[in-house]
Amino acid sequence: MAVTAEQIALNSIVSLIKMNVKEIDRLNSRLERVGLNPKEAPSQTAVVPCIISDKDFDQEDDQGNKYKKVKVTFEQAYSKKPEVLAAIRRLDIPKESDHKFEVRVEDVNATDFNLVCLKRGGNETVVDYASVSYLSVPKV
């Protein structure tokens, strides 16, 4: 029986796949030796629109600061609570307005967290638009 070019090509692909599987196993082994779970969700990042207009601030704390909570769900759940870092990505505030705006991360668990967008001083700060970037990293 003659071997066709297609069979040769398929044999080459199978051989490459086997080599890649071995390399993945080797790398997973190295991750486990340094205390990382290779099946753990990787670091995740995204940009989240927080405020589309100043009217989006729908809650007020006992100091008169207005805020909005945005629930963010991870694309892939972690096996345990990850570390989450948030930073202002874009902030549109009128020139004459106070610039007292902050973001916080609260209630982090393996599947989601709350992003709190807060303007200090009640109505003195006007926010036309705000977006926030976050980075979540599995705990070691």
What does this structure look like?
It holds the Pfam family H_lectin. This is H-type lectin domain-containing protein. InterPro entries: H-type_lectin_dom_sf, H-type_lectin_domain. GO terms for molecular function: carbohydrate binding. Strand 2 (about 60) and strand 3 form a beta hairpin. With about 140 residues, the protein is of the alpha+beta class. It has a four-stranded antiparallel β-sheet with strand order 2-3-6-5, with no helix packed on it. Strands 1-7-4 form a three-stranded antiparallel β-sheet, with no helix packed on it. About 20% of the residues lie in helices and about 35% in strands. The chain has one helix spanning about 5-35; strands at about 45-50, 60, 65-75, 85-90, 100-105, 110-120, 130-135. It folds into two domains: about 1-40, no CATH class; about 45-135, Immunoglobulin-like, CATH 2.60.40.2080. The chain is built from one helix and seven strands.
How many distinct folded domains?
Answer: 2
N-to-C SSE string, H for helix and E for strand: HEEEEEEE
**Structural class of the secondary elements?**
alpha+beta
CATH architecture of the largest domain: Sandwich
Query: Which strand order does the major sheet show?
Result: 2-3-6-5
What would you call the shape?
elongated
Query: How many angstroms separate the termini?
Result: 55 Å
Mean pLDDT score, rounded?
84
Largest sheet: 4 strands, antiparallel
Helix count from the secondary structure assignment: 1
Protein name: H-type lectin domain-containing protein
Pfam families: H_lectin
GO molecular function: carbohydrate binding
Domain H-type lectin: 70-135
